[in-house]
Amino acid sequence: MPYVTQLIRLSIWLAFLAVVFLPLERLFALRDHRDATWRSTLADVGFYFLNSLLPAAVLGLVMAQVVLISRAALPAGYFRWTASLPIAVLLPAALLIAEFGFYWGHRLTHEWPVLWRFHAVHHEPAHLSWMINTRGHPVDMIFVRLCGLTPLYALGLAGFSDPRGNAIAALAIILGTMWGFFIHANIAVRLRPLEQLVATPLFHHWHHTREGAINRNYAAMLPIFDRLFGTFHMPNAWPVDYGISRGEDAAPDERGQA
Fold it and tell me: I need a labelling partner for 72 at 20 to 30 A (CA). Which of 126, 148, 211, 218 fits?
């Protein structure tokens, strides 16, 4: 029965996302993708449900162990201190730490050949749309989220015994996922006052291009980490081609793309 409830909840979310993004992609379309096949659309829907259910189940088990290990390794006074932090401090700190983990998790999926074989599934589509956000291999989804959530639970910023901790972890996933649908969308929308501060469609579209920039723009929401670690790339124009150009079975760095 819980699985039925989850499927209903995910179906409602999918309907909500479709109501938001389908009109946006029609009104502000960057490319004309009305010739997309039903097979491709069904695959996107399948990935949406698979990657909304399986990673959550796996990560719940793993995070429970992370909490147990961190509680045994760190002094109890530390966790009393984190529990005493006001939400106005705790929330920004947690989101920044999670984003740092997501950045490095995403970057490693490009730089480590064994991880790239899973992550390449996400880069295969030759066009972008909002549904591409959840089109990926579950192993890839689990790994990147593991990198983002583990520091939160290990440092006591999220935890199963603290309602605030649960809410913060959920918020990190929800914000990242919702923003992910936005930056993958096929929309010619520029957020010029904010483009240097937050990830935008232009920023992330350059991450999916075949024009030699696939090893750039790893951040999910905050490009500050791309700037700090030298991976920021955002020309003042939209890329033309998307997908994997050649050598699909090799990691990007082995194909000479930088």
Answer: 148
